[in-house]
Amino acid sequence: MTRLAFIGLFLVALAAIVYVLFSAAGGKPPSNPFERYATGDMAKLSFASAGEAAPTANMFAADGTPVTLDAWKGKTVLVNYWATWCSPCEREMPSLGALQTARGGEKFEIVAISVDASEDKDYAIQRLGELGASNISFHIAPPENYEIVYDSGVQGFPTSVIYGPDGKEIARLAGDADWSSIEAVNFIDAILAKVG
User: Does the pLDDT of residue 5 top 60, yes or no?
Assistant: First the structure.
């Protein structure tokens, strides 16, 4: 009888250990469904501002027309704040052009907002093309019209902010990244599958 009791206790202890190990391996589920995509090239993704509304301040199209991010309501948009004087900005721009080619369309678009000076607008447009990203929608927010930059909470360049079709922030990434990487494409695909 004692031998059976020891075997029973051993099995209970073994079951408890297995339960604890599986619980620890699973960990706490992420509070945001997209947090699991913050790996590899997307490791710097931040979800701290998720749910906040896109800023309403103006930026300017290449022809000087004032535009707000409301123009993209109804589609998922990746807004990239960059400058020609910023080498990490230029380093990531080809991958943004590749992502626009791969996923751009009715549901998703990349918008580049240059923070260069007004007099450098033509050069910024030229550089966008030279960097393989002429397929990205160009806009400018020069220093005298930085409200959209401030209202977005951008603290350095480059910064990419992703907004859903409802105009609410999904995630942001400060610094450069390879937006053509498998991690980035999987992240964008997951967003499009969930929010459209």
Answer: no
Indicate the class that CATH gives domain 31-195. alpha beta
92-146 pLDDT, tens per residue?
999 999 999 999 999 999 999 999 999 999 999 999 999 999 999 999 999 999 9
Secondary-structure percent of the chain, ordered helix, strand, coil, rounded to 5: 45, 20, 35
Phi, psi of 163, rounded to the nearest 5 degrees = -115, 140
The per-residue DSSP string of 75-115 comes to SEEEEEEE-TT-HHHHHHHHHHHHHHHHH-SSSEEEEEEE-
Structure confidence by residue, pLDDT tens digits, 133-160: 999 999 999 999 999 999 999 999 999 9
Q: Where are the domains of the chain?
A: 31-195
Residue 186 and residue 195 in contact, taking contact as beta carbons nearer than 8 Å: no
Which pTM does this prediction carry?
0.84
